[in-house]
Design brief:
single chain, alpha/beta, three-stranded parallel beta sheet, 2 helices
Length: 79
Protein backbone atom coordinates (compact mmCIF):
# COMPACT_ATOMS: atom_id res chain seq x y z
CA UNK A 1 0.00 0.00 0.00
CA UNK A 2 1.21 3.53 -0.78
CA UNK A 3 0.14 6.62 1.15
CA UNK A 4 0.84 10.10 -0.23
CA UNK A 5 1.31 12.94 2.27
CA UNK A 6 1.48 16.68 1.55
CA UNK A 7 4.57 17.49 3.60
CA UNK A 8 4.24 21.23 3.12
CA UNK A 9 0.59 21.65 4.12
CA UNK A 10 0.73 21.79 7.90
CA UNK A 11 0.29 24.82 10.11
CA UNK A 12 3.48 23.97 12.01
CA UNK A 13 5.68 23.38 8.96
CA UNK A 14 7.06 20.27 7.31
CA UNK A 15 9.15 19.30 10.34
CA UNK A 16 6.05 18.28 12.28
CA UNK A 17 4.57 16.33 9.37
CA UNK A 18 7.84 14.52 8.67
CA UNK A 19 8.23 13.67 12.36
CA UNK A 20 4.75 12.13 12.40
CA UNK A 21 5.37 10.16 9.21
CA UNK A 22 8.69 8.84 10.49
CA UNK A 23 7.07 7.83 13.79
CA UNK A 24 4.27 6.04 11.98
CA UNK A 25 6.68 4.18 9.74
CA UNK A 26 8.77 3.05 12.68
CA UNK A 27 5.69 1.70 14.46
CA UNK A 28 3.98 0.01 11.51
CA UNK A 29 6.46 -0.18 8.64
CA UNK A 30 3.83 -1.77 6.42
CA UNK A 31 3.14 1.02 3.94
CA UNK A 32 5.29 3.05 1.58
CA UNK A 33 4.87 6.72 2.44
CA UNK A 34 5.42 9.29 -0.29
CA UNK A 35 6.17 12.77 1.03
CA UNK A 36 5.30 15.46 -1.52
CA UNK A 37 6.83 18.91 -1.25
CA UNK A 38 9.87 21.11 -1.63
CA UNK A 39 12.69 18.68 -2.40
CA UNK A 40 15.36 20.89 -0.82
CA UNK A 41 13.53 21.13 2.51
CA UNK A 42 12.57 17.44 2.60
CA UNK A 43 16.07 16.23 1.72
CA UNK A 44 17.45 18.52 4.44
CA UNK A 45 15.06 16.99 6.98
CA UNK A 46 16.04 13.48 5.85
CA UNK A 47 19.69 14.42 6.35
CA UNK A 48 19.00 15.76 9.84
CA UNK A 49 17.33 12.50 10.86
CA UNK A 50 20.21 10.42 9.56
CA UNK A 51 22.93 12.72 10.89
CA UNK A 52 21.56 13.29 14.38
CA UNK A 53 19.67 10.01 14.66
CA UNK A 54 16.65 11.94 15.93
CA UNK A 55 14.81 9.86 18.51
CA UNK A 56 17.39 7.11 17.93
CA UNK A 57 15.96 6.19 14.53
CA UNK A 58 17.25 6.70 11.02
CA UNK A 59 14.94 7.98 8.29
CA UNK A 60 12.95 4.84 7.35
CA UNK A 61 13.63 3.20 3.99
CA UNK A 62 9.90 3.00 3.20
CA UNK A 63 9.57 6.80 2.94
CA UNK A 64 10.00 8.25 -0.54
CA UNK A 65 10.24 11.93 -1.46
CA UNK A 66 8.37 13.25 -4.50
CA UNK A 67 9.30 16.82 -5.41
CA UNK A 68 6.54 19.28 -6.19
CA UNK A 69 7.10 22.35 -8.29
CA UNK A 70 3.85 24.12 -7.47
CA UNK A 71 1.91 25.02 -4.35
CA UNK A 72 -1.66 26.15 -3.76
CA UNK A 73 -1.66 29.14 -1.45
CA UNK A 74 -4.31 29.66 1.24
CA UNK A 75 -5.85 32.59 -0.67
CA UNK A 76 -6.24 30.60 -3.90
CA UNK A 77 -9.47 28.93 -4.98
CA UNK A 78 -9.17 25.12 -4.80
CA UNK A 79 -10.92 24.75 -8.17
Amino acid sequence: MKIVVDAMGGDLGPETIVEGVVGGCIVSGLATIILVGDIKILEELRGEYNKKLIKKHRFPENIEILPSTEAIQMKESPV
